[in-house]
Amino acid sequence: MKGRILPRSFYARPTAEVARALLGKVLVHGATAGTIVETEAYLGGGDDLAAHTARGMTPRTQVIFGPPGHAYVYLIYGMYECLNLVAEPDGTPGCVLIRALAPVTGIELMRKRRPKARGIGDLASGPGKLTLAMGITRAQNGVDVTRGALVVREPREESRFEILVTPRIGISKCADLPLRFVMEQEMANSRS
DNA sequence: AGGTAGATCTCCT
DNA sequence: GGAGATCTACCTT
Questions:
Q1: Which of A114, A120, A125, A145 is least surrounded by Cβ atoms within 10 Å, i.e. has the fewest?
Q2: Nearest nucleotide by C1' position to the A133 CA atom
Q3: What are phi and psi of A34, to 5 degrees?
Q4: Is A186 near strand C, with its CB below 7 A from some atom of it?
Q5: Tens-digit pLDDT profile for residues A108-120
Q6: Over the stretch A75-108, which tens digit does the pLDDT of each residue have?
Q7: Residues A131-183: pLDDT tens digits?
Q8: Positions of chain B reached by protein Cβ under 7 A
Q9: Which residue is nearest to nucleotide C8 (CA to C1')?
């Protein structure tokens, strides 16, 4: 029995709140699914200079200004695609970058798509990796994530976890803002 | 184990 | 013309 799909109202609130709330939810695309374990908020409004929307709307970024609960997929450094989920009410910019997933289903398919990954932990442990592993491309830019092939669901069973808040990764502007959210799983069993 | 180079799209100066 | 919300391969310790 699957968890319910997150409704559009889930996304229609402040971006940082959505980023935090997405931790522990399950991203599903086709036959693959993974638990969201790391997110970053990119704010609209112009104060956040690291956001793609900092200098207004462009053809690429117009979906971020649109209704919440949609996907924004963009190409970074010419090679890798990154998945964002649009937050805030229609007309207000703001999106959440999905930075890392813990694979749940379709792991064999993910391995096939990323043959160089060393283990489960490497399959979707970065923004560019997780889009490759789940088969997400710019073809999914602008799609509705409250219905269709690409959706976000409640987890099947509730789990308790700590949330770590840190500055965002890989940017130089506004790098001091605490807008990165990481699921901190208490692992007493990890041995190397 | 850790650092660096290379690949090559979109938007701004 | 060049930086950027990155990842991998190929170096050197």
A1: A120
A2: C7
A3: -150, 150
A4: no
A5: 999 999 988 888 8
A6: 999 899 999 999 999 999 999 999 999 999 999 9
A7: 999 999 999 999 999 999 999 999 998 889 999 999 999 888 898 899 999 99
A8: 7-13
A9: A116
Whether the pLDDT of residue A190 is over 60: the answer is no
Q: Mean of the per-residue pLDDT values for chain A?
A: 92
> Residue A98 contacts by C-beta under 8 Å, 6 or more apart in sequence?
A22, A27, A36, A38, A39, A82, A83, A84, A85, A127, A130
Q: Could you give the domains of chain A?
A: 8-183 (3.10.300.10)
pLDDT score, position A94: 96
Strand C closer than 7 A to residue A2 Cβ: no
